[in-house]
Write a structure and sequence with these properties.
Blueprint: H1 7-33, E1 36-38, E2 56-58, E3 61-63, E4 69-73, E5 84-88, H2 98-110, E6 115-120, H3 136-150, H4 152-155, E7 162-167, H5 169-178, E8 201-205, E9 223-228, H6 235-248, E10 252-257, H7 273-276, H8 278-288
Parallel strand pairs: 5-6, 5-7, 7-8, 8-9, 9-10
Antiparallel strand pairs: 1-4, 2-3, 4-6
Helix pairs in contact: 3-5
Amino acid sequence: MKILKTPVVFFKTLCITAVAYCFVQTIILAQTARKIIPLWENGAPGFENKRNEPESAKDYWVKNIHNPSLQVFAPPAGKANGTAVVVCPGGGFRLLVYNAEGVQPAEYLVKLGITVFVLKYRLPREEGSPYSLEKHPREDALRAIRQVRSRAKEYGIDPGRVGMLGFSAGGEVVASVAYVSGKGDANAKDPIDRLDGKPDFQMLIYPGPLGIPETVPADAPPAFLLAANDDPCCGVTTASLLVKYREAKRPVEAHLYTKGDHGFNMGDRSPLQSIKSWPQRMADWLGDNGYLNFP
């Protein structure tokens, strides 16, 4: 004899099924959002033997990075507008402020339809580091832009709309590739190394002074600059870079707030309304300059 399920049993079964479905979908979404792309398949050039060394992570930071990579944050299907941004967290080249200056900015930009790649670059100032401040972060930044351009079709990216966002030392990483040629090697064995590694635009949030040129070149990418005037480290960098951009007659927008100090991240922890709302200024600039337009 066939036993019919009572309404209560049926409801419980339905709820369990729904929860299971949501759990699976959550896992799928998390896996999609957390896709990791190593900059080099076999490890960084000259340091291939270190690529399997585990990273260290705690609270807000990540360090001990020997296999530099990009974490992908892609907009939902049909929402991508063709713009991509490589995010470079700060941390003084001793660590990466990965959550507040990597994941949070990525989540903000994804809502604007931008495909985001958070860069884990090597840290020359970490204790015992084998890396050079002048060479390896720049090497990672060039390769990151080239990796993104190589995946333009995969992610629906316009290879002419690939920008960078850098916080503090991350701004110095951006500067290391923004003012010099990023031309690839046409004869490179790896096709990714044949691509241009220079960003099409840059957004620098309380950037450090390293990599800032004496004179901004005529082909410098358009810039969005933001810092606090009472930042003892980087307020001066921002103000001086604005002047240099004006002298070079290159597109620039700058915001220098009265207060805010250094390291206010995305502004959500600040008591200052101007700092809390600064990401909207970045969104306005992106929109005004056509980076949020759909192709």
